[in-house]
C-alpha cells in the first residue's frame, strides 16, 4: 500500500521519539484532505490511536495508519525524506497524482 524509504524511516523514528511517541508501537498517520494549491493536500502526523475507519499498513518496520477514505488516493505511494540544504523534509512520491504543486504538499488526480 504505502512504502517507506530508509531515510524516511530513520527521520520518522527520530522525530517520533522527540515528540514522545514510540516508533515500535505508534503510527505515522497519512491522509488526504481538500485544500492546497492543487486541490488535495497530504496530511502527515504521528498518532497512537487507531480509529474504526483506519487501516494499518507496515513497511520497512514502520507502522502507517490511513483512514479508509484516503486509501484510494495513496495506493502505491512511497514516503521519502530529503534532508540537507536543499531538502524538503518528507516527500510523497504518489503515482496517482496527475499534477503536484511546487512545494510537493498538494496534488490533483
What characteristics describe this protein?
single chain, 109 residues, alpha+beta, 6-stranded mixed sheet, 3-stranded mixed sheet, 2 helices, 9 strands, 16% helix, globular
Notes on the structure:
- The protein is an alpha+beta fold and 109 residues long.
- The chain contains 2 helices and 9 strands.
- A 6-stranded mixed β-sheet has the order 4-5-2-3-9-8.
- A hairpin with a 5-residue loop joins β2 (27-34) and β3.
- The longest helix has 13 residues, at 6-18.
- The radius of gyration is 13 Å and the shape is globular.
- The protein starts with a strand and ends with a strand.
- The mean pLDDT is 87.
Care to count the β-strands?
Answer: 9
Give a quick account of the main beta sheet: strands, pairing sense, barrel closure: 6 strands, mixed
Q: Residue ranges: pLDDT <50 for 5 or more in a row?
A: none
* Global Rg: 13 Å
Write the element-wise H/E pattern from the N-terminal end onward.
EHEEEEHEEEE
Report how far apart the termini are: 18 Å
- Give the structural class: alpha+beta
Integer average pLDDT? 87
* Helicity range: 10-25%
Global morphology = globular
Number of helices: 2
The order of strands across the largest sheet is: 4-5-2-3-9-8
> What amount of the residues lies in strands?
35-45%
Amino acid at each position: 500500500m504505502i512504502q517507506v524509504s530508509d531515510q524516511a524511516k530513520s527521520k520518522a523514528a527520530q522525530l517520533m521519539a522527540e515528540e514522545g511517541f514510540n516508533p515500535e508501537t505508534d503510527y505515522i498517520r497519512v491522509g488526504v484532505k481538500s485544500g492546497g494549491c492543487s486541490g488535495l493536500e497530504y496530511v502527515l502526523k504521528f498518532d497512537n490511536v487507531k480509529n474504526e475507519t483506519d487501516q494499518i499498513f507496515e513497511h520497512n518496520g514502520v507502522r502507517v495508519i490511513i483512514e479508509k477514505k484516503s486509501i484510494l488516493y495513496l495506493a502505491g505511494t512511497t514516503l521519502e525524506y530529503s534532508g540537507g540544504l536543499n531538502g524538503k523534509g518528507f516527500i510523497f512520491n504518489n503515482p496517482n497524482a496527475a499534477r503536484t504543486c511546487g512545494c510537493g504538499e498538494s496534488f490533483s488526480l
